[in-house]
Amino acid sequence: MDGWTAPSAIERELYEAKARGDWDAYLDALAGDRLYIAQSRARSDADPESVLFHPTPSGVLVVHTAGMLPAPTPETVYESQSLRWFAKVWAPSDPAHLAVNPGTPCEAYLTTTPADLARWRAHAEAAGGYGLPDHHVHALFTGGPLHGPVAHGLAVGGHLAVTNGEFWNSLAYHGNGYQRQRSRLEKGWGITDRAGWTDALERLLDARMVSPVWEFSLRVRRVLASDFAGPVDVEHWRHAAETSLRLSAERAAEPQLTPDGVTVAAPRPSAEVEGEIAGVRRLIGRIARYEQRFRADGLLPEDGWVRSVEAWDHGRASQMARWGVGARHATVEEAESAVLRAGEAARQTYRSWAEFSAGYVLGRCLHFDEEEFGDWYTGALAAHVVLTSDPASPWVNIPWK
Fold it and tell me: Do 232 and 282 reside in the same domain of the chain?
């Protein structure tokens, strides 16, 4: 169809294969993608482990590819499955046709005879896996913002979108399916309801999940760099942090004038203060070693350093907003508001996408990596490289400010 813009690369591939009459290529594309099937939310909540077929009055079963999903509604949810799964579970009593994206230029009505199901399985075997490949930039060409403040806020979540193989700009979010999204939030975050989602989102937006010790250490160096207008030696940094901690401990023990009178606080045990100082000195060493590796790998410029790790929370906040929609803990409008806040919070702390990315990666590494420079680091580095270099990346096309 002249003038039609496919919502994503998936539908474009299906359309081009159909236009050529190349049904093997069409099935190859389907086998490598998630296929989404509508379910009643009430029924899905009552029986999360099952997926039911609901044929249309004309007797076909409708599925959608990721770029063709309708906007989320409270009553209807979508579960994703592979072409291999459909071939495996299809019974003789099931519909005679599988309708892929009906009513669109890339639609197809696939017959479901035993020979067809065997053909589906063969294409699935050749595909090896399904879903968007990770460590690539995936976008909605239509149906998702590509420019402007909302797009900027969504792009703040770019690291996770690239790592998880998801559209970076999908605000009307379905993820990998309703029950998988709910499971992701419960297993990874302990979130099982709207209240839990709201609490986690607010803490992320306010950067209250990152360790205050990490931020204290980086803030000390930031002040030193400002005062001395240049690089800060690690030992100078450690000494300044130690001095600040000792002064803080001394002030906490001083008498305080309150509305109830003069309050005298007991001094903190010296062992506690010394332990805190030793921990911060070790942390500064860890940060310095990570930054050295970041410079070697191009995550930081030769003389660069990380301003803050609040990006670790801001990036996750942008994604948490969408995850709430996928799990039906939030509306699209609420997610948009949160995404805008995440973008603005990031702009207040950082001066560029590259600075933001370095802060995000350091936060991720301090939380997970333990200086092993394993998958937690290499995966984040791969996402950084793609996001800062791919001509289709939002970080290349959306100004930081």
Answer: yes
Name 300's bridge partners: none
Report the alpha-carbon distance of residue 46 to residue 199 in Å, rounded: 25
Q: Which residues, at least 6 apart from 211, have a Cβ–Cβ distance to it below 8 Å?
A: 309, 366
Query: What are the tens digits of pLDDT across the range 218-230?
Result: 999 999 998 887 7
| Number of domains forming the structure of the chain | 3
Do residues 25 and 115 both lie within one domain? yes
Q: What is the pTM of this model?
A: 0.92
Structural domain that includes position 161 = 149-210+310-397
In angstroms, rounded to a whole number, what is the distance separating the alpha carbons of residues 145 and 353? 18
Nearest to 241 by CA among 217, 257, 261: 217
Is the per-residue pLDDT at 206 higher than 90? yes
User: What's the longest Cα–Cα distance across the chain?
Assistant: 87
> Residue 49 domain-assigned?
yes
Beta carbons within 8 Å of 263's beta carbon, 6+ residues apart = 255, 256, 257
Burial of 41 (0-12, 13-18, 19+ CB in 10 A): middle
Mean of pLDDT over the chain: 94
